[in-house]
Amino acid sequence: MKRFQVKVCGNNSVENFKALTEIEPDYVGFIFYPKSSRFIKDESIFDIFPNAEKVGVFVNETINNIIQKAQKFELDVVQLHGDETPAYCQELIEAKHQQLLTSEQFLDFKIWKAIGVNEDTDFEQLRGYQQVVDSFVFDTKSKQYGGTGQKFDWQLLKTYQLSTPFLLSGGIQLEDALVLKNFQHSQCIGFDINSGFEIEPGIKKIEKVKQFIDTIDGRIEQN
Is 60 helix (H, G, I), strand (E, B) or coil? Predict the structure, then answer.
């Protein structure tokens, strides 16, 4: 059985994040979208070095600001959660390469593109992203940019046949862990959890996150 990765997104509490790092998720996500209730206000959270890859989540941000944040906070992944086009992703790649050539500080990051999914989604329309993103994040389609806490019908992913891997997101709860552990799709590499594991926006229920990760990893068989 393949091992799925887990991303825990949306922390903005320093003390809570310290506790989260002790259970070692694969990825930790930070929201750089000012309109989000999980927006990172206290940048001292980046003084904590997790044993996980750091994901910066941006919504329709300028290329320059993304490059600055990626460099300042040493982001491993840039997740684009707005209306960014394939052309925008290509521009970001070129800006990253230019920074690599002109800066003494090493800068490299993967690019993930979040896609809202509902019954009208045509995955074939995502082909333009295949050469410019490393992974998709399939979230529940909504008028806002994520954070709804709502699931979409995961059966819709049966029609996804592109080669780009993806993480499943949107309304995942602890009780979904056993189902997701056995999730069947060759391109699914993991799960992105957020609001379903919170005390309040930005603060996670650490024990619930641990139970989810342990279940996905096969360390426990039931909650």
Answer: coil
